[in-house]
Amino acid sequence: MVVGQLSKLLGYPSASREFIDQLQEFAAHWGSGLTATAWLGLSMVAGLLLLKRLAPALPAPLIGVVAGIVAVVVLDLRSRGVAVTGTLPSGLPQPRLPSVGLGDYRALLHDAAALMVVSFASGMLTAKSFAERNRYSVDANQELAAFGIANVVSGLVQGFAVTGADSRTAVNNAAGGKTQLVGIVAALVMVAVLLFLRGPLALVPTAALGAVVLVSALGMLDAAGLARLARMSWREGLLSVGTTLGVLVLGVIHGVGLAIALSLGWLLVKASRPNTAVLGRVPGVEGFHSTADQPDGRTEPGLMIFRFESGLLFFNTAYFRARLAEALAASPTPVSWVVLDASPINWVDATALQSLAELQQEFAARGVTLGFAGVRHSLSRAFNASAVQQWRRECGIRDFKTLDEAVRAFELETRATG
Hints:
The protein is an alpha/beta fold. It contains 17 helices and 6 strands.
């Protein structure tokens, strides 16, 4: 947003919409001297920043636009090459169906899909950013429905694609707009302008509009938030920086795609190598806890309670078995029972079930009992119920409602065989 306003602010032609190209254009024109447009634009930026600091209650964007019109008229800036918005179209749009043939829809599908993804991503990022700043919540599903309805209506009147514009949202926030009433007032004012006020707005200097957007955009930069995120998690800080650079260097569409790929990749890495723990009892504390986190935790000799803190799926079953094997090798006493605390496991797939059946066969050959405790009922919804029951009977894995029940069963069997 900031770099995109530089050409308007300084008065040089720009044919690019990409960040890097816009920076190169700025560097090429910066040394050519300040024109009347540049003096006006820089003065507007300084004035808006002063108003924002000294009188934040005043509508600085509106004052800036009015001041720009006055400067154009009084100083005859148009004769000095200062560009203005020019004559605006009059009247209201007339509803009509798009004149697009059936054969054109296939060609439009790719661009429409990309536009949909970028519009929604951009709109939601803007909405969530300002929601966090102003401490209210945003329902993404409701926003998606609203974007869809708005775009259908816009299409019926031959309008542009509709989304939450970051620059206009920033200007609205800078002007003090906080509720949906702002949108209603803006719509009414727009209608009034189209019908009655086209003359004055035709004199608004482009540099003034660029200054308003640039100053509003500067308020969106959250370096402190990025630093706080980096302090909390350097990995997420790098992910944020990488996403930002991706959008700047690759463009919005490819940058959003990179952000999605990075996020999914990070989730996959975390899900493929989750935390595991051997559980035991801690004196004076109810339940079972990680012996690594609680050094005074005690385990039952011959019993290992193992926790896998993720879904058990095709891409992490090998990691699960490797970590379990490491825990068994590190046990100070021989293990005759292994109970898997299944309470953190919220999803399993067929590959994981087959791997567990193979693990049970290996344990049975060594005289080790394998059991589950705290299996969620929701896990069975992904499979045919009768098939799951048959799998349980065939593999012979014992099932307990709680860890306490599993420990009691182990103690009873130990006493019976001892």
